[in-house]
């Protein structure tokens, strides 16, 4: 399956940091993808950081792509990896994920 680097990283982040499922609340008027993208972006940069908005937009686009490919189920209150999504996430080893996360966070 063809995934962008951001899509693959987000799958691994949801798996390794959240066990494959994330609960969140969506304020009225905002899409679940936008809210979740902001929540996940805060795992790496502070919202006041100049990179935050660019990361949030990239994550939102990646989440929409993952949803269209049936790799995640995104509801108003949770996102969870599908069986195929978990398999794709596991293609990025925990060690490589940790290394990428460390580089991404600095």
Question: How does this model look, in words?
Answer:
By secondary structure, this protein is mainly α. The chain has one domain (5-105): Arc Repressor Mutant, subunit A, CATH 1.10.10. It contains five helices and three strands, in the order αβααββαα. It has helices at residues 5-18, 32-41, 52-68, 83-89, 94-105, and strands at 21-23, 72-74, 78-81. A three-stranded antiparallel sheet has the order 1-3-2.
What is the chain-wise order of helices and strands?
Answer: HEHHEEHH
Provide a count of the helices: 5
The proportion of residues forming helix, as a percent range, comes to: 55-70%
CATH topology: Arc Repressor Mutant, subunit A
Oligomer: single chain
Low-confidence stretches: none
The average pLDDT value, as a whole number, equals: 93
Strand tally, please?
3
Domain count: 1
Class based on secondary structure composition and strand pairing: mainly alpha
The CATH architecture: Orthogonal Bundle
Let me know the largest β-sheet.
3 strands, antiparallel
> What CATH first level would be assigned?
Mainly Alpha
Rg result: 13 Å
Alpha carbon gap, first and last residue: 30 Å
Spatial strand sequence of the major β-sheet: 1-3-2
Question: What fraction of the residues are assigned to beta strands by DSSP?
Answer: 5-15%
């Amino acid at each position: 399956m063809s995934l962008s680097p951001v899509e693959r990283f987000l799958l691994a982040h949801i798996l390794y940091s959240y066990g494959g499922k994330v609960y969140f609340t969506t304020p009225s008027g905002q899409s679940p993808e936008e809210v979740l993208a902001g929540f996940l972006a805060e795992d790496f940069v502070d919202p006041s950081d100049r990179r935050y908005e660019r990361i949030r937009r990239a994550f939102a686009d990646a989440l929409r792509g993952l949803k269209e490919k049936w790799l995640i189920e995104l509801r108003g209150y949770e996102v969870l990896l599908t069986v195929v999504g978990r398999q794709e996430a596991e293609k990025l080893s925990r060690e490589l994920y940790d290394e990428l996360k460390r580089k991404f966070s600095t």
